[in-house]
Amino acid sequence: MGMAHDAATWAFYLAAIVWWTIDLGYGPLQLVLLGTTLEITMLASEVPTGVVADRFSRKWSTVLSFAIMTAAMFLHVATTEYWVLLISQALFGLGWTFRSGADVAWLTDEMVWLKREVAGDAPEVDQSPILLRRHRLGMVAGLVALAPTTLFGGGELRLVIAICAVVLGATTLWLAVAMTDHFREGFDEDEHPHSMREILREGFATTRRVPTLRILVGVMVLMGVGAEALDRLGFKQFLDEGDFGDDSLLWTGLLFMTLGALGVAVVWVTEQALERGIKLVMLATILLAIAAGGAIIAALAPAIGIAIGLALQDPCREALDPVSVAWTNREAPPGARATVHSLVNQAHGLGEVAGGITLGAIAELTGIRWVIFIAGALWAVAALLARRGIRHDTHQRVSATVN
What we know:
Layout: H1 2-23, H2 28-55, H3 58-76, H4 82-99, H5 102-119, H6 128-152, H7 157-178, H8 196-209, H9 211-242, H10 248-275, H11 280-300, H12 303-331, H13 337-366, H14 368-388
Helix pairs in contact: 1-6, 1-7, 1-10, 2-3, 2-4, 2-8, 2-9, 2-13, 3-4, 3-5, 3-7, 5-13, 6-10, 6-12, 8-9, 8-13, 9-12, 9-13, 9-14, 10-12, 11-12, 11-14, 13-14
């Protein structure tokens, strides 16, 4: 499920960023507005779609997500009109929120069901290493998709995006037909909420009540503000400074593949650290600190330094994603698991919306390097905030793991 999705979305993003920057010639504010449109939609949709997944079905929420994102990709290449691209970004954001949290909750449902079937009342298995491994395998699939996109997609960027849509559409059909769904099997109906209002109330109560979740929400807001600068403008800065011309896709693809390979390595190292007993919150703090340093290097260094800075911050942010998912999943109650994931993701989206247009405007006035520096500074603050959560992280890893 995750591998086909990641392969399609990685290839889509690579083709889109080069198409937007080189072929369509968008400036910093236009690029940021594309991202901000995506994030505003996600911000508005995250919690309602999470509650829907917890109330009705996490599997079918994921299937719906893939179907909507497939439609968004097709719409994206239907025209070069900027307002249509904005609509496709909004549609993509809506689709993403139906998956956000629901896929992890669905995976957790299946793992809990399998554990009961095989081992009865055996001790709970820590799912954090499994979530990191899942993310790493998805990254590998994305790398595999980037190679042909980079080598053969130079003159056919819109065709590449259409192929991504076909792959994602086929995955949607496969999920609907072939995958199992054990939603709410084994739930104690007296302990878990039934109505959407009860699910939402439990989700909010959990994020307020659990100290590490409160800290994570703050970290995600700060991460979101800075992320928009790097995600939308970091690669533009690389392309502008490098002045690669017709070879822009090749060089951007090589950078993407390098960052992806480093990301796989960093996620693997993070898995090993988790296996050896280092806590999730400590790992998040370390990854945030390195990402902050990488962003500051990208902002201050000459042209080659942009690539070096991206090579530090991007892999650490990739590893931080499954760490934050595992952190959330560990604290979320079974009956509102997707909702709690959505609330945490909404905090990140809030940061992106708040920072996106502001940083885009600053970039237009002062240059891209300043907003990349601001992003690094914000991530440094996020690392200090995460460090405060270490003393609250009393959860110990269960020695048993699933291989």
